[in-house]
Amino acid sequence: MNSFWSEGDHDTKAPVKITKDKNGVDLVTLQNQRGFSVQVSLHGGQVLSWKNERGEELLFRSSKANSKPPAAVRGGIPICFPQFGNRGCLEQHGFARNKIWEFENNPPLLHHNNRNDNAFIDLLLKPTEEDMRIWPHSYEFRLRVLLTSDGALKLISRIRNIGSKEFSFSIAYHTYFLVSDIGEVRVEGLETLDYLDNLHHKQRFTEQGDTLTFESEVDRVYIGSPHIIGVFDHEKRRTFIIRKEGLPDAVVWNPWEKKAKAITDMGDEEYRQTICVDGAAVEKPIKLKPGEEWTGRLELTALPSI
Ligand code: TA6
Questions:
Q1: pLDDT by residue (tens digit) across 104-154?
Q2: Closest Cα to residue 222, out of 268, 172, 158?
């Protein structure tokens, strides 16, 4: 185990720890002094867990999740890149979530700032020869996963075109929030926006409600969404605040009962314990000329609801 302190009982409290999961893939645990923690796997660069100071899990993970690469784990925050959705020859939601990422530095720099108690790790995804045959673009995808002293989870993506021709991509941080029951959840910040409805052949509609509640399957891409969105869990008296930059859209998804039964790596009733609200750039793919770099920032905070 590689940790910030390499000896003694500090390891249990090390702000940045690296262990191996059951498949031998690196698993990074970030902790802060208040007791919040985040786990991110090099499988997919996927955040698998985010816990508050009481050790309560804030992200959903299916009891039937298939955690063997290359399949992505159902839950946490899979990164959908270089496409959201399933078009052309790429797999659904692109390949990034199915790949084994690497540490940006070797050996990995275990970042912890003593002054502000921020702990973070920098991951990197670059295409292999085989990847280039499927998606012939040279890029470097740098992902910083950061836990702040007050327990906010930040995901900062920097994607650079290091090739000789322009390419476009869409991206989503497919965030599975853990909720008490989908019937207790409302989402605020998307009212009056247009959305593309995946349940109606991506037709464009306008959100009429002044808040989003859930009584059936929902699968929408809200366009031009604000940089702050609230997810309220009435039962748990918990509010998730989503702040995003460079991510103009918001995906909202719950499979509901029928679709959940058809998802092999999701329990039949588990749809009631999660809502996906994803910071994304989907409607207008991002274009990068050679040498250009795009940055997208997502910050999640979990607050007790008043
Ligand atoms: O809008 C979200 C969505 O595209 C849904 O249509 C559903 O497919 C969901 O993503 C999950 O996709 P996945 O490939 O993770 O099963």
A1: 988 888 888 878 889 999 999 999 998 899 999 999 999 999 999 999 999
A2: 172
Q: Which of 198, 202, 282 to mutate to test the pocket of ligand 1 (most atoms within 8 A of CB)?
A: 198
Ligand 1 pocket member 220 (CB < 6 A) = no
The pLDDT value given to residue 233: 98
Kindly report, residue by residue over 52-86, the tens digit of the pLDDT.
Answer: 999 999 999 999 998 888 999 999 999 999 999 98
pTM for the predicted model, two decimal places: 0.95
- Evaluate: CB of 97 within 6 angstroms of ligand 1: no
Alpha carbon distance, N-terminus to C-terminus of the chain = 41
Chain segment 84-101, per-residue pLDDT in tens: 998 888 899 999 999 999
Rounded Cα distance, 145 and 45, in Å: 9
Strands 46-51 and 79-80: unpaired
* Ligand 1 atom showing the smallest separation from residue 221 Cα: 1
Sign of CA dihedral 59, 63, 64, 69: positive
Check if 253 has its Cβ closer than 6 Å to any atom of ligand 1: yes
Pocket of ligand 1 contains residue 251 by CB under 6 Å: yes
User: Which architecture, in CATH terms, is 13-304?
Assistant: Distorted Sandwich (2.70)
User: What are the angstrom distances between the C-alpha of 145 and each of 32, 236, 265, 266?
Assistant: 13, 26, 25, 26
Domain ranges within the chain, ordered by starting residue: 13-304
Assess whether the C-beta atom of 219 lies below 6 angstroms from ligand 1. yes
**H or E segment and range at residue 256:** helix 256-262
Cβ contact 22:41 at 8 Å: no
Ligand 1 center to residue 202 CA distance, Å? Answer: 14
Atom of ligand 1 nearest to the CA of 220: 1
* pLDDT tens column, 183-237: 999 999 999 999 999 999 999 999 988 899 999 999 999 999 999 999 999 999 9
